[in-house]
Amino acid sequence: MTTRRDALAALKGTLARLERGVMPSALPHFSLGLPELDGALGGGLTRASLHEVFAASPAHGPSATGFALALAIRATPSAPVVWVRQRMFDQEFGRPYGHGIAALGLDPGRLVLVRARHAEDVLKAALEAARCTAVGTVLAEIWGSPKVLDLTASRRLSLAAAASGVTVLATRVDAAPAASAATSRWQVRAAVSQDPQTGLPGLPAFSVTLLR
Q1: Per-residue pLDDT reduced to its tens digit, 108-159
Q2: From CA 78, how far away is CA 137, in angstroms rounded?
Q3: What is the dihedral of CA 171, 45, 111, 142, to 10 degrees?
Q4: What single string gives the DSSP state of each residue in 19-85?
Q5: Cα–Cα distance list, 212 to 32, 45, 66, 116 (Å)
Q6: Bridge partners of 114?
Q7: CA dihedral in degrees (68, 198, 99, 75; nearest 10)?
Q8: Rounded to two decimals, what is the model's pTM?
Q9: Are the C-beta atoms of 64 and 174 separated by less than 8 Å?
Q10: pLDDT range class, residue 20, cuts 50, 70, 90
Q11: For 45-100, what is each residue's pLDDT tens digit?
């Protein structure tokens, strides 16, 4: 079985190889695709910072992940996306599906997927990835409210993002918002998705509330 040290060493090797690739965009904001919302946010969401996405309840966890992936696509047009996922998400919702990710708009070839058993390991891997200047976005998924994910941990992620230019998205399920260094905080619920012409399920839809 791969140890935590081995997993982190493998991630460091991957990030070192990525550093020889495409650098992330230098634009300070990325658009959400809605002019009214972008305007209210001063041009969109800021890159090189930490943003939190909370599921309204555990049942809405897949929607929170989908919304976070949509933000990652917006933030990262071409650079790699590092997705660090606590294994609890796989157990509850199933593993990521390549064709579904592609249908959402993210080329699976740009995705580096890291699975970790504990929240502490997720934070370590996410922090390591956030320090790599060749990464576009880091998506970190953590279940519950572990003690290791405190204000200090969020500050470390925020500072790493600011130093490297990487955008960090933290998806939280079965957790209540608490003090953090996040620039924005969202709450996500599933919404009805229906094609107006056929009445069949259409594009992914989310009910989103900007908490901060």
Answers
A1: 999 999 999 999 999 999 999 999 999 999 999 999 999 999 999 999 999 9
A2: 10
A3: -10
A4: TTSPPPP--SEE--S-HHHHHHTTSSEESSSEEEEEESSGGGHHHHHHHHHHHHHHH-SSS-EEEEE
A5: 16, 12, 20, 28
A6: 84
A7: -30
A8: 0.85
A9: no
A10: very low
A11: 999 999 999 999 999 999 999 999 999 999 998 899 999 999 999 999 999 999 99
Under 8 Å between Cβ of 161 and 167: yes
Please tell me the total number of residues recorded for the chain in this structure. 212
DSSP state of 110: G
Residue 119 sits at φ, ψ, to 5 deg, of: -60, -35
Contact, 44 vs 64, CB < 8 A? Answer: no
pLDDT in tens, 186-207: 999 999 887 878 877 878 899 9
Q: Supply 122's token pair.
A: 């997720």
CA dihedral 177, 182, 185, 190 (to 10 degrees): -90
For helices 151-164 and 119-130, give the axis angle rounded to 10 degrees. Answer: 20
Residue 58: count other Cβ atoms within 10 Å of its Cβ: 15
